[in-house]
Specification:
This protein is of the alpha+beta class. The chain contains 8 helices and 11 strands. The chain has helices spanning 21-30, 47-53, 72-83, 103-111, 113-116, 123-128, 146-155, 195-209, and strands at 9-17, 35-43, 59-68, 92-97, 134-142, 162-167, 176-177, 180-181, 185-194, 218-224, 226-228. Strands 10-5-9-6-2-3-1-4-11 form a 9-stranded antiparallel sheet, covered by helices on one side. The termini are far apart.
Length: 233
């Protein structure tokens, strides 16, 4: 028998301008979100688009948090209302299902489950958590390939993406993966895509920037179960 008191958790990710990061973190605190982390990334808009918009930087904040499934709609609604995510360019938010989590963290959420279940979910919030047909394409490539990568992705149907700088952590000694030398400095490129566009985007970037190329790309996708602030038709 399934324990109904075990909370269902989701990973909620917000991608907004760096200057708006504090707004999101403040809302996380107001909504009693137990864990949230912030990373710095950059948007992939070209310099000509930035000039047109009068924007001098594409610096982005990628905010990741854990929240109970029943509390996600209210969290998305609060951020959407405050930042106007329904307006183009205001940012995006989406949720990813978890396949597992360590027990001490689960116990933290279980301890507050009675409070969380008292949340009143309004009709507008319920719409945000309805079944969606989106996927998050995640690509890890060697540093310096993100601009070319996004050019190919856009030609295949992507509307945009976010780049996060990272380092690969490997075992001691020279490292090769499928015979390809692995560089330490990496770029993680995330693209939120409608499900029907996912396959052509992944096929195009895999052919140009896959593991056997100089970019040494590792490309995969994750199911997204709720989206706010993105209009893909």
């Amino acid at each position: 028998m399934i324990d109904k008191q075990v909370p269902i958790l989701k990973c909620v990710i917000f991608i907004v301008d760096w200057t708006k990061a504090r707004v999101v973190t403040d809302i996380c605190e107001q909504e009693h979100v137990r864990f949230h982390f912030i990373m710095k990334g950059r948007g992939t808009a070209g310099s000509d688009i930035l000039d047109l918009l009068g924007v001098g930087s594409t610096e982005k904040a990628v905010i990741m948090c854990l929240e109970q499934d029943i509390g996600v709609p209210q969290l998305l609604k609060a951020v959407t209302k405050k930042l106007g995510l329904h307006n183009p360019g205001a940012g995006i938010a989406f949720t990813l299902p978890l396949s597992g989590i360590n027990m001490p963290i689960l116990q933290v959420f279980k301890g507050s489950i009675e409070k969380i279940f008292k949340i009143s979910i309004e009709p507008e919030a319920e719409k945000m958590s309805a079944e969606t047909k989106f996927d998050l394409i995640v690509s890890v490539v060697n540093q310096g390939y993100s601009d070319e990568f996004m050019t190919v992705a856009r030609e295949a149907g992507a509307t945009g993406g976010t780049v996060i700088n990272a380092r690969g952590i490997m075992h001691q000694g020279p490292v090769k993966f499928f015979g390809i030398s692995v560089q330490d400095e990496k770029e993680i490129i995330t693209i939120l895509s409608s499900r029907e566009r996912k396959a052509p985007i992944m096929q195009a970037v895999s052919q140009a920037f896959g593991i056997s190329s100089k970019a040494g790309g590792i490309i995969f996708s994750l199911p997204v179960d709720a989206v706010a602030g993105l209009d893909l038709k």
